[in-house]
Structure formats: C-alpha cells, structure tokens
Design goal:
Blueprint (H helix, E strand, L loop, with lengths): L5 H4 L1 E6 L6 H14 L9 E6 L6 H7 L4 E2 L5 H20 L13 E6 L8 E5 L4 H4 L6 H15 L4 E4 L2 H10 L6 E4 L14 H7 L7 E3 L9 H13 L6 E4 L10 H11 L6 E5 L3 H10 L2 E4 L8 H8 L4 E4 L2 H6 L6 E4 L4 H12 L8 H35 L4
Helix pairs in contact: 8-11, 9-14
Length: 405
C-alpha cells in the first residue's frame, strides 16, 4: 500500500479525553496530531477527532487547528450532546458487552487510543502507556491493580495491534505476557514544541519573580515523580554552602495519596528551603515552554515513566537535562548531550550530580542550541509521522483478519 493511498484506504479516529489528573495523556494526543501534520498535505490521512470531553478547552481548540484534522464545527450545545452520547454509549457497552453485536463502525476506520477491549465493535489500535503497577504496586489501590492486570491481559489476548512507547515497555510486555496474540509495536513520540523569540521568556520570569538561573522540575506532584529526592539533594547542598534555586510546576495533588503534597511542604519548611524552591502550581502550556527555555537545566527525577514528555520537551529545546537513571530515561537520552544521570531515588547521588553540573550550566534561553534542536526534531517528526501511519495500517489489517499479520 503506497503512503499516498492512506487517505483513501484508512480513517484514523482519534479519541480525545482531557483528564485534569493526567495532563500527559492530552499532551500525547497534541504531539501525535502535530507530528502527523508534518506529512505532505497530499499524504494527509483522514483524521476525525472523537471528543470524550469538552472541545472548548484551550488545548482542545489548539488541536482542532492542526491541518491534518478535519472537524465540522457545531454549536456548543450539540458538541456537549455529542460528548455525552459517546461517553454513554461506551459505558453501556462496557457494562453490557453483548451490545457489541449490534454496533457497526465506519469501514476502514481505526480508533486510537483504545485503552481497553470493551469496544469490540470497531477496529482498535490499543495503547498501554506503561507497566508502572508491576514496579510500584504500593502506589495503587488493590482494585486499580486488579483492573490493570485484568485489562492489560485482555489487550494482550486480543487480535490487533498494541502501541507501546519504548523498547523498555516492549521488553516488559514480552516478559509479562509471553503468549500474547496482540501484535506490539514501539512508537516513541517526540515533542513538537517550538521556541519563540528570546524575549518571550521574560514575562514568565517576571510574573513569578524568578531568579535568572534556576533548575526546573515540570512534573505533577505524584509520589512516583519523586520531588522529595530533589528537595533532599538541595538540602544536602545547602548544608555544604551551595544554594540552587528550583522552580516546580504541576498540579499539587495526588489522588492516590492526598497527604503527599502536605508532607512535601512540611519537608521544605523543616529544612528552610522555601526561599529557594518556587512552587508555581499549574501554569499555561506556553508559560511552561518559556520556563523550559529559561531554565539552566531541566530535572526529571521520576521513578517511572512510559516515555517522559518532560524529557522530550527539553530535548526539543536543546536544554541540559538531569534525570534519574532508570531504563526509559536512559533510552530517551541515548546520544543526547548535555545530560547527566543519577541513581534513582538517591539524594546523595543527585547532590553530587548537581555539584558537577551547576558550575557548567548557564541560564537560558540558548538560541543557537534551540536552532540545532529544532533542526534535529524536524527530521524526527517526519520519520515518526510515517511510522505511526504504518502502525495504524497494520492495526486495520490485523483487526479485519482477526489474527496476526
């Protein structure tokens, strides 16, 4: 099948659900559609956005403007009715699987991301973001652990194609589900952000009264994101006479551990770190981009990621990165410089890493580094666009055959 026949032979129905508790999922779809928009317009696939949450949010409105997306605007009332209808149908089919027999999808349409197997009436491209619950089970309620095990096993034993974000995840999948019938494919997205003029950074810095040189952590305040290791490392350095400013953005709430943010704040108070740690909460995406550009380095301390959006954003801007050393981070930063790794969850190791890096780091932005990164990223985006469409084609064929290719 030639690539220029994609439009005639395949429709990609992209489901969009904006979850305030997991912003990474929405940004993933944003990056996907931006990447597919890199294709030559004559090669654009037919893409339909299937909204499962409001299309009126700023991010939803942004993705509607991508040239690869086709969308017939409706009044806000009918848009809301459509969202309610789709969610109600999905819930009904999930509760009553026999309804699948009476539903028909459009021919040659592949739905992505399919996060479970309940919607068997259509052709699905499945997606498992990560296998975190196998490594950090203590962070999950027993019911959620059971749901993940049951759901992932159902996907593994389904016909079709499963998208994974890293070679590490593929290794995990093959280890946990050695007899799987679904066909795994690896697609490691890249960020599609682009820097603006250097002056764009200044309003963000001025609005929060930030120091010229700082480190930046752009993670939600979930326990596995491991802010506590960064705070402990800063305390060690402060005792040695080195004070490093740190800026943190992200939702200050962990639904699985509501007391966690309070313990972090108490830790800052206990070690008198409030003057050097700036907690900004959730900021607009454009503000986040300017903070990434201005930071002397981006720190990603997480104990587990499927494929870190923060690291991809930093790479897209050519920023120095300091990251924990678990497998996915090493995979993402292979052949990338400047980057430093430290032993995951070890404050002493991070403190030593920061001591070495801080004197070599300069405040951003770095227009020359951004230009080089943009050039690299442009090539990567086009490669990824072709890769994704080939995977979507495989999903359509596998689902139609009901067996592996």
């Amino acid at each position: 099948m030639k690539e220029d026949s994609w439009r005639a032979s395949l429709t990609l129905a992209v489901e969009y659900f904006e979850d305030p508790n997991w912003l990474g999922g929405s940004i993933y779809i944003d990056n996907l559609l931006a990447i597919l928009s890199e294709l030559n317009p004559q090669d654009f696939p037919l893409i339909e956005l299937v909204f499962l949450s409001s299309p009126a949010t700023p991010l939803a409105q942004k993705i509607l403007k991508y040239p690869v997306v086709e969308h017939q605007p409706k009044s806000s009332f009918w848009e809301a009715v459509g969202v309610l209808r789709r969610r109600s149908l999905r819930a009904a089919v999930r509760r009553q699987p026999w309804l699948n027999r009476f539903l028909r999808a459009k021919p040659n349409t592949v739905y992505f991301p399919a996060l479970d197997t309940s919607q068997r009436w259509r052709k699905n491209l499945y997606w498992i973001p990560d296998f975190q619950h196998h490594y950090l089970p203590h962070l999950f309620e027993p019911t959620e652990l059971a749901w993940r095990d049951r759901n992932f096993s159902a996907i593994a034993n389904s016909p079709g194609v499963l998208l994974l974000s890293s070679q590490s995840a593929l290794t995990d999948f093959q280890t946990f589900y050695p007899a799987a019938t679904v066909q795994p494919r690896v697609w490691s997205f890249c960020s599609t952000i682009r820097p603006g003029p250097e002056a764009d950074c200044q309003p963000a810095l001025a609005a929060f009264d930030l120091p010229p040189k700082f480190l930046y952590v752009a993670n939600q305040f979930w326990r596995h994101k491991d802010h506590i290791t960064v705070f402990a490392a800063l305390n060690l350095l402060k005792q040695q006479g080195l004070t490093i400013p740190l800026v943190c953005t992200g939702k200050q709430d962990d639904r699985r551990d509501p007391a966690y943010i309070r313990s972090l704040l108490d830790n800052l108070d206990q070690h008198s770190l409030r003057d050097q740690v700036y907690l900004l909460g959730v900021v607009p995406r454009q503000t986040q981009i300017q903070l990434l550009r201005a930071a002397a380095a981006v720190v990603q301390p997480s104990r587990f990621e499927g494929w870190s959006t923060v690291i991809e954003d930093a790479k897209a801007l050519g920023r120095p990165i300091i990251a924990s050393d678990f497998a996915v981070h090493r995979e993402q930063l292979h052949n990338y410089a400047p980057a430093w790794h430290y032993a995951t969850g070890e404050p002493d190791a991070l403190a030593q890493c920061l001591t070495q890096a801080w004197v070599r780091l300069a405040q951003g932005p770095d227009p020359e580094g951004e230009a080089e990164a943009a050039k690299r990223n442009q090539t990567r985006r086009l490669e990824l666009a072709h890769q994704f469409m080939a995977i979507a084609k495989d999903a359509m064929i596998c689902s139609a055959l009901g067996r592996p290719l």
